[in-house]
C-alpha cells in the first residue's frame, strides 16, 4: 500500500513538473514570437484605387487624387493656395453616425508641416458631417499644402485602421480607437507642378 502511494505521489509530481515545463515553454515561444513579429512586421498591403479597404470601423475605397488651387467647395481663396485632394468613398460599419477621423489618412514619406485634412461631402460640396451607418458617401479629403512644397508626380497614401473596445482603459466606455495603417495606395498626381503654379 505504501509503495502504491509513493508511486502515485511520484506520478502526480511528474505530471505537475511536465505541465510546468510545458507552460514555461509555451510562454517563452509566445514571447519570442511577439518579439520576432515586432522586429519583422508583415509588409503593408498595397491596395489599388477602386479597391475596398476594410479598416475595422470603415470600408474605404480610394478613387484618386489631384492638385487644385481651389478647395472642394469650388470657391477660389483670395490668397493663392494649393490643395491636395483625395477622393474616396466611405461606408460606416459601426452602429452610430460618426465623423471620418482625421487620423484615417497619412503619407509615406510624411509631408513636412502638413495640417490635418478637412473632409468634404461631394454631393453638398461642403464640410462633411457624421456619416450614417450602412449609407456609403462620396467624400474628398483636402489638405492645404505648404507654400514652398512642390507636389511630386506620385504619393503613397496610408490608410489607418480602428479597433473596437467595449471598455476603454480611461473611462470604461465603449469606443473605436485608431491603430496602425492597414493598406497603402499609390496615387498619381497628373500635372501636379503645372496645377500648383496656376
Secondary-structure blueprint:
Blueprint: H1 2-39, E1 45-47, E2 52-54, E3 58-68, E4 83-92, E5 105-107, E6 118-121, E7 126-127, E8 137-144, E9 154-165, E10 175-188, H2 192-197
Parallel strand pairs: 1-10
Antiparallel strand pairs: 2-3, 3-4, 4-8, 5-9, 6-7, 6-8, 9-10
Average pLDDT: 85
How many angstroms separate the termini?
Answer: 100 Å
Strand content: 35-45%
Just name the CATH architecture of the largest domain. Answer: Sandwich
CATH topology of the largest domain: Immunoglobulin-like
- Compute the number of structural domains: 2
β-strand number: 10
Instruction: Please summarize the sheet with the most strands.
Output: 6 strands, antiparallel
Percent helix range: 10-25%
Cα Rg:
26 Å
Outline type: elongated
CATH class call of the largest domain: Mainly Beta
Q: What structural class do you assign from the helix and strand content?
A: alpha+beta
SSE topology string? HEEEEEEEEEEH
Number of contiguous helices:
2
Could you state the oligomeric state of the chains shown? single chain
Side by side, the strands of the main sheet go 2-3-4-8-6-7
Uncertain segments are none
Description:
The protein is of the alpha+beta class. The chain has two domains: 1-41; 45-197, Immunoglobulin-like (Sandwich). It is built from two helices and ten strands. The protein has helices at residues 2-39, 192-197; strands spanning 45-47, 52-54, 58-68, 83-92, 105-107, 118-121, 126-127, 137-144, 154-165, 175-188. A six-stranded antiparallel β-sheet has the order 2-3-4-8-6-7. The relative contact order is 0.19.
Amino acid at each position: 500500500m505504501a509503495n502504491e502511494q509513493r508511486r502515485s505521489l511520484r506520478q502526480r509530481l511528474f505530471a505537475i513538473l511536465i505541465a510546468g515545463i510545458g507552460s514555461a515553454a509555451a510562454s517563452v515561444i509566445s514571447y519570442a514570437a511577439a518579439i520576432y513579429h515586432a522586429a519583422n512586421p508583415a509588409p503593408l498591403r498595397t491596395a489599388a484605387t477602386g479597391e475596398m479597404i476594410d479598416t475595422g470601423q470603415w470600408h474605404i475605397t480610394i478613387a484618386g487624387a489631384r492638385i487644385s488651387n481651389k478647395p472642394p467647395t469650388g470657391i477660389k481663396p483670395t490668397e493663392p493656395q494649393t490643395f491636395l485632394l483625395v477622393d474616396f468613398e466611405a461606408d460606416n460599419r459601426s452602429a452610430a453616425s460618426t465623423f471620418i477621423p482625421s487620423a484615417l489618412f497619412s503619407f509615406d514619406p510624411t509631408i513636412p508641416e502638413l495640417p490635418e485634412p478637412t473632409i468634404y461631402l461631394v454631393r453638398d460640396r461642403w464640410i462633411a458631417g457624421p456619416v450614417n451607418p450602412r449609407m456609403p458617401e462620396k467624400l474628398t479629403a483636402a489638405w492645404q499644402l505648404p507654400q514652398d512644397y512642390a507636389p511630386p508626380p506620385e504619393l503613397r497614401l496610408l490608410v489607418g485602421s480602428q479597433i473596437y473596445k467595449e471598455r476603454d482603459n480611461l473611462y470604461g466606455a465603449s469606443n473605436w480607437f485608431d491603430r496602425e495603417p492597414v493598406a497603402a495606395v499609390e496615387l498619381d498626381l497628373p500635372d501636379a507642378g503645372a496645377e500648383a503654379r496656376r
